[in-house]
Specification:
51% helix, Alpha/beta knot, alpha/beta, elongated, 2 domains, seven-stranded parallel β-sheet
């Protein structure tokens, strides 16, 4: 099973959107995985961290130790999909107390109400607070529990506040890497003003009213020729509907030129095809050898002279 996953994951080591020519963002709160069970999940957490510029990975008593060896190590590296450097730089701790010793503020992630009187925040608000603390030099960390059980109550007690995710209450369990991904996403939004990696391509200039009205007049004349406006009593409302439809598109100059060209082609296409067929018919009816009649006349004249 591990070997099969590794083979699939190796195909995704560098996914679409990866651009190593861009500067790598690496900062933010520590991600602390407490007693993680699966090497593959640790790898996927590393990938989620790299997606959103997090680089401080801490592991507390991972099952079967760390770093893994053999197929398990290979599976973790493949799941990291280009973020192997985070796995190689992960810090290993024997206890949670040691893992959070240098932090000023700790969040615990949980899907269950713990009755500990701690402040509870969604990831968006929590990461805004973390960003504000980060700007003053404070060090924050986020605890994520083992896949099967999550954090226990004693581990939650070591945190300052709780992060919980607004999910379907009937199915509130998240995969470990999903929880890291959601938190990392909110961190990146808070830290980088939700800037998009690329913007909508610039369109051509908006079409002028004159250009649009000319297009409407031409288009409607062709619809008239095709008998579209029937019954005539509905013509005004049909024209308004058509014009409003195009106005909602916020047509550019290029849009109008393209539409105009398409309608010209559609309306004149049958006429042009008829002309083409007529030319082809005329060409097929012409004698194959234009010299033949002259040759026959010459032969007949020669024969007549010889008879004489």
């Amino acid at each position: 099973m591990v070997r099969r996953f590794t083979q699939i994951a190796e195909l995704l080591v560098v996914g679409a959107g990866t651009n190593k020519s861009q500067p790598n963002i690496a900062c933010g709160p520590a991600v602390i995985l407490v007693r993680p069970q699966l090497a593959v999940n640790i790898g996927m957490c590393a990938r989620a961290m790299a997606n959103f510029g997090l680089n401080d990975l801490r592991l507390v008593n991972p099952r079967e130790g760390w770093p893994r060896t053999g197929a398990l190590r290979k599976g973790a590296n493949a799941a990291a999909a280009g973020a192997v450097h985070l796995l190689e730089g992960a810090k290993l701790f024997d206890s949670l107390e040691e893992a959070i010793a240098d932090l000023n503020f700790v969040w615990a992630t949980t899907a269950r109400e713990r009755g500990q009187g701690k402040r509870v925040e969604p990831p968006e608000a929590a990461m805004r607070e973390t960003q504000a603390g980060f700007a003053t030099g404070a060090k924050h960390g986020i605890l994520f529990g083992p896949e099967r059980t999550g954090l226990d109550s004693d581990e939650v007690a070591l945190a300052d506040a709780i992060i919980t995710f607004p999910v379907n209450p009937a199915y509130a369990s998240l995969n470990l890497a999903q929880a890291v991904l959601l938190t990392g996403y909110e961190w990146f939004r808070a830290a980088h003003s939700a800037a998009l990696p690329f913007e909508t391509p610039e369109r051509s200039h908006p079409a002028t009213r004159e250009m649009i009205v000319s297009f409407f007049n031409y288009f409607e004349s062709k619809l008239d020729e095709g008998g579209f406006f029937r019954p005539l009593s509905k013509r005004p409302s049909m024209q308004r509907n058509i014009r409003n439809m195009f106005h909602r598109m916020q047509l550019t100059e290029q849009d109008v030129r393209t539409l105009w060209g398409a309608i010209v082609r559609i309306s004149e296409g049958p006429r042009l095809q008829a002309k083409t067929r007529q030319r082809q018919k005329q060409a097929s009816e012409e004698p194959e050898d234009a010299e033949a009649p002259a040759g026959q006349d010459a032969g007949g004249a020669v024969g007549k002279l010889s008879d004489e």
